[in-house]
Amino acid sequence: MAGIKWVLASDIDGTLVGHGGEALLADYLRQHPEIGVIYLTGRTRANAEPIIRHYGFPDPLALATDIGADVYWGPDLHVDENWAFQQRRDWSPRRVVRALEGLDGVMFGARSSHWRIVFQIRDLEALALAKAQLIRAGVACRTLWDGDERRLDIVPRGALKGRALKYILNRLNLKAQQCFVAGDAENDGDLLEGRYRGVLVANGTLSLRDHLPPVIWRSPYEGAYGVLDGLRQFIDDSLPLVPAEYAG
Asked: DSSP label at 146?
């Protein structure tokens, strides 16, 4: 880890990519190798790696996928088997499917990865029924609700971006004070709870924005522009101001 002074630990979709500014941020990070990058995403490795390469972002110190269920060490992205074993200890996709089978308004969708099971939910009443049934069945898991798509994702109990980041930093012998986090969505909430300095970009979820600790910058800029704005506030005040027209 020689030469690493800071770490940017960031979500990908909606934070690094999707709202412009990707090339500026990628160029800045490549020109400052003292800032290592850790990517934390809900995507699988197969879906995340091409995005990182496409936009020219630096090779990762580590990549946490499926909301932290898998950890890969870069740049070769070899899987951390010890971490994966921890997730598998109480993860049973069959028990999840069996527990929700036949519930009114709860329809099995797919297994989008070996760590994620997707159900389509008719309404909030069916959502409450599904969550209650998982508890009654004693299924160890986390539930992630997307109200716009009426989609319930079920993942291992230990699949948390913040938990994965803490593990990665410990393995790399880096301190929390060296880490700067960036996110936009509910599944970034445990990154933005105050253990690290960081930024919520302008397109971030409103419920997160209302409960941020002081160490998290509420950027007026979306996506990568917001990440650059946050880096300027906390790490490098020599960064030029983001033009006002890019504000969300």
From this structure: E
